[in-house]
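Supplementary notes for students who missed Thursday's class. We covered one full example, reproduced here. Read the sequence, then the structure, then the short commentary at the end.
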Amino acid sequence: NHKKVYYSKSTDSGNTWTQAILISEESISVAVYPIIRCDSQNNLFVAYSYGSGNEDSRVHIRKFDGTAWSQIFNVGES
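Structure (token representation):
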């Protein structure tokens, strides 16, 4: 019942991939419904929900600027 969100990247049409890194919060056991979007400056934004869909669920978002991931931002509750 553990679900995490990982990130990996390929620069050769999917033939090889970087080592996957955990981008969801380490302390949570269930991260679901990940969504990834890219802006006009090629920044990646990943949002995901965590919790079981009850009153304790939250939405987090992170930004990747091509070099590093931002801290995790809580953008929604319940």
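Commentary. DSSP finds no helices and six strands in the chain. Residues 7 and 20 are 5 Å apart (CA to CA). If anything here is unclear, bring it to office hours.
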